[in-house]
Amino acid sequence: MAAVISLINHRNISTLIHMKLFNPDTLHIFHSGNQEDRQDLEDLKEFMNLSYPQVRIFAHRVDMYDCEKLGKVTRSILTRDPDLMFDLSNGNPVAAMLLRQIAANLKLKVFVFSERDDRAALIKNGNCSEVDLQSVDLEIADFIKSGGGDVFSSSTSIYESPEIEKLLMWQIQNYSTWTRISKLLRSRNIIQGSGNGSQDHVVGIDLRGLSAGEKKLMIEFVYFLHESRIAKMRRKGKEGFSLDFRKPGFKQLLMVYGSWLEAITYHALKHLHLMDDLRSGVVFYWDERIRKVANEIDVMAVYRGRLVAVSCKDTSKYNEKDLNELLVAANGLGGENSIKILVSTQWPDKSLVKERAKEIGIHLVRFDGDLSSFLQQLKKIFD
């Protein structure tokens, strides 16, 4: 039965990589016993229970700076698990150096993974060789589970529906018209409410107070939604309509601020054919034990083992707070090596936002209706 010794760490990506590569039955964790290590240990156990419930986990409190005691614990483990290797990718750097020497003395293999470079190496009998990671397919859920959380929901299936694909194509081909309609939909004086209970999929639209040109735009758009089988339209007098959306996600795409931009960004990244995993509207929990605190990232992907986090803003009024929220979420799930992108329909009002984004490694991308330019901007990031 294969076993691995790892040093406790607040991120578990290297452990995940090791599990996918070597399939150990037992995981031995060395920790110092301090409060931070104990919390990380609880998070690791939560992660393992979610992803690898069949793997046995043993925690060992050790003195990270005592070579003799580290060696004694290792030899004790070796008597029980002779097929043993080390994962020294993370954790206390002094302990990692000491354990590297212990591994050499006991002729044990050592695995090391660099999250920054997405590369790994194996040290065996004094020889070093690079480990092929092509067989390791990381998914978005892996990054979230590695932090002790879990995925709650995603809008991906809705965005993949033929009705929404048709809507997105119409929005791109008629972008100037769509931007005018979008502004009208945001105007609360024309939206009569979305009902409640069994009627929460119904939206009323009141055209009174609109100009003749605005009424024409809205009527044409309502008929398009009806013909595309996105929402069933009914007249309500001379100046109104009701839209009965066929699916809750269809209503969200049009009525929730910025959802249409999220959908276009999802399809643009899919069109690049570069992502190993791709989802939109990912609602997740940082900690599975605290399910009341939900978080959302508009579009998430995995590119060559790195997490991609995208925030979408259908406005120019985003600021450093929005940048910091993206930074914290992306780094918390994917580490500092994560790829962070903010997509907007307008450049920010304040020039300082552009400067701050560059400082903290966030790519700003604008969608102005030109799909070809949008794709080129995204592709340049990954190139």
Write the layout of secondary structure elements.
Blueprint (H helix, E strand, L loop, with lengths): L1 E6 L5 H10 L3 E6 L3 H17 L4 E6 L5 H14 L2 E5 L5 H13 L3 E6 L4 E6 L2 E5 L8 H7 L3 E4 L2 H4 L2 H12 L1 H12 L4 E3 L8 E5 L5 H16 L3 E5 L4 E6 L2 H8 L3 H14 L4 E9 L8 E10 L2 E8 L6 H15 L4 E6 L6 H9 L2 E5 L4 H12 L1
Parallel strand pairs: 1-2, 1-4, 2-3, 4-5, 15-16, 16-17
Antiparallel strand pairs: 5-6, 6-7, 8-13, 9-10, 10-12, 11-12, 13-14, 14-15
Describe this structure as you would to a colleague.
By secondary structure, the chain is of the alpha/beta class. The chain has helices spanning 13-22, 35-51, 67-80, 93-105, 140-146, 156-159, 162-173, 175-186, 212-227, 248-255, 259-272, 320-334, 351-359, 371-382; strands at 2-7, 26-31, 56-61, 83-87, 109-114, 119-124, 127-131, 150-153, 191-193, 202-206, 231-235, 240-245, 277-285, 294-303, 306-313, 339-344, 362-366. A seven-stranded mixed β-sheet has the order 3-2-1-4-5-6-7, with helices on both faces. A six-stranded mixed β-sheet has the order 8-13-14-15-16-17, sandwiched between helices. The protein is elongated. It starts with a strand and ends with a helix.
